[in-house]
Amino acid sequence: MSESSLPSWHGTTILCLRKDGRVVIAGDGQVSLGATVIKGNARKVRKVGGGSILVGFAGATADAFTLLERLEAKLEKHPGQLTRACVELAKDWRTDRYLRRLEAMMAVADKDVSLVLTGQGDVLEPEDGIIGIGSGGNYALAAARALIDIDGLDAETIARKAMAIAAGICVYTNGNMIVESL
Prior knowledge:
Elements: E1 9-10, E2 13-19, E3 22-27, E4 31-33, E5 36-39, E6 45-48, E7 53-59, H1 61-77, H2 82-95, E8 104-109, E9 114-117, E10 123-124, E11 131-134, H3 137-147, H4 155-169, E12 178-181
Antiparallel strand pairs: 1-4, 2-3, 2-11, 3-12, 4-5, 6-7, 7-8, 8-9, 9-10
Helix pairs in contact: 1-2, 3-4
């Protein structure tokens, strides 16, 4: 079987949002290979930097963990400077022959900033503080934007509702959520 005829990995929805001084990253637990669900309880959201930074990753698992390790190293080199650490990681990701082949995206956030990191060298800060990445990311993003201004809904409630909407639309997203907050 040639590499191009192998089924591709799918199965991540990551959502990051801010409301009322809180930041939340939520991720579903599904990993699929082609049309087959391989795992339903993967943990794609983590706290790093001594618990002061949230990370959610989408893409090939080994690639995502490689990038997570690299981000942690950059954070050790630039403590308390999430944006700088992300820019340094993006530079490496873009220029290093090994890293530029990695297929993953990351949503990262601390108490002050939320960022998307891509393999194209992008470090993006959304103007509304809401990020959606992965196969169901756009569904979760749209749902979160619709819910964000509703009084009485806190950041975690919005994240859970938006992720449930994404899980109801995207076949590569399940309702088994991990939610971390600061």
